[in-house]
Design goal:
The protein is α/β, with parallel strands linked by helices. Helices cover 24% and strands 28% of the residues. The longest helix is centred in the C-terminal third of the chain and has 22 residues.
Length: 291
């Protein structure tokens, strides 16, 4: 029976990049001490979520990947013998920046990166100002403990992205994310938004027969206008919740995933087998009409 212990690190951030990196390393150590073999950090964990404003000064937060943050985390990964999933602001070249997640294996080696494919542009989430859409395609990484698929935040709303990642052989899908509530909203709206966010990701787990791990930040940012809703969670291959974090507390939790369940679920609920791939050509259209 193949089981893997995954660590979810849900934390708040400050304006100090080094402080956030140091804090994340402490959290990785906590997760490893609890038995984690793969540790996932939240989206853009070295900074506040800066995409609430269009400010050219924020480009100074970006760095090369591999670069300083991955260098520091590689040392930790090797020491603790854990895989680390690290979401960072990547400076690729002059004027070209990406929202990128690096994967570091348990021997400290750098396995590669995934660049966020879907880029939002909503009030307080002005990511198109900063990020070039990913051009590496969807990715899976063969780590010491499992073959993992990485998608990032806005990617989580797209079943096409999760399907392709699963078809590439991902044993587990990880979603580093940063999403929250406008603090002027009513509680019913907050609940509806969170439920939609969790439901769509659990549906990816059900449709593909793989566990999903979603890690969000927590805390008030944007001068109190935004409450990042935490609520990080992990599912099994049937979408069952195995862990659900609070909306307002930092948490470092380790969850054991049974990867053999994927084979069981895909045999009993054969959604992958029964796909009519010959009928899916229209999915490549923006909208199906006469134009």
């Amino acid at each position: 029976m193949k089981k893997v212990k995954v660590g979810l690190v849900q934390m708040s951030c400050t304006k100090d990049k080094q402080e956030n990196l140091d804090k994340a390393i402490v959290k990785v150590r906590e997760a490893a001490a609890k038995g984690a073999q793969i540790v996932c950090l939240q989206e853009l964990f070295t900074s506040l979520y800066f995409c609430d404003v269009e400010d050219y000064a924020n480009f100074d937060l970006a760095e090369a990947i591999p670069g300083p943050s991955t260098d520091a985390l590689q040392v930790v990964a090797k020491e603790l013998e854990v895989v680390i999933i690290a979401s960072l602001f990547e400076k690729r070249a002059a004027g070209i920046y990406h929202n990128t997640t690096a994967v570091l294996d348990a021997d400290g080696s750098y396995l590669g990166k995934y660049r966020k494919m879907h880029i939002p542009d909503d009030p307080a989430f002005y990511e198109k100002f900063y990020f070039t859409p990913g051009d590496l395609g969807y990715k899976v990484f063969e780590t010491k403990f499992a073959k993992i698929g990485i998608l990032i935040c806005w990617d989580q709303w797209y079943p096409e992205a999760s399907r392709i990642t699963a078809l590439m052989g991902a044993d587990i899908m990880f979603y580093p994310t940063a999403i929250g509530w406008d603090t002027t909203q009513d509680e019913e709206t907050n609940e509806d938004q969170y439920n939609a966010w969790q439901t769509i990701q659990r549906s990816h787990s059900v449709a593909n027969g793989v566990p999903v791990v979603s890690v969000n930040r927590v805390g008030f940012e944007q001068d109190g206008a935004m409450k990042f809703w935490g609520g990080s969670f992990a599912t099994n291959a049937q979408g069952k919740l195995l862990y659900l974090a609070s909306h307002d507390q930092e948490e470092t939790e380790v969850v054991e995933l049974d990867l053999d369940q994927s084979d069981f679920m895909r045999k009993h609920w054969p959604f992958l087998r029964d796909r009519r791939i010959d009928s899916y050509q229209p999915i490549t259209k923006r909208y199906i009409d006469e134009d």
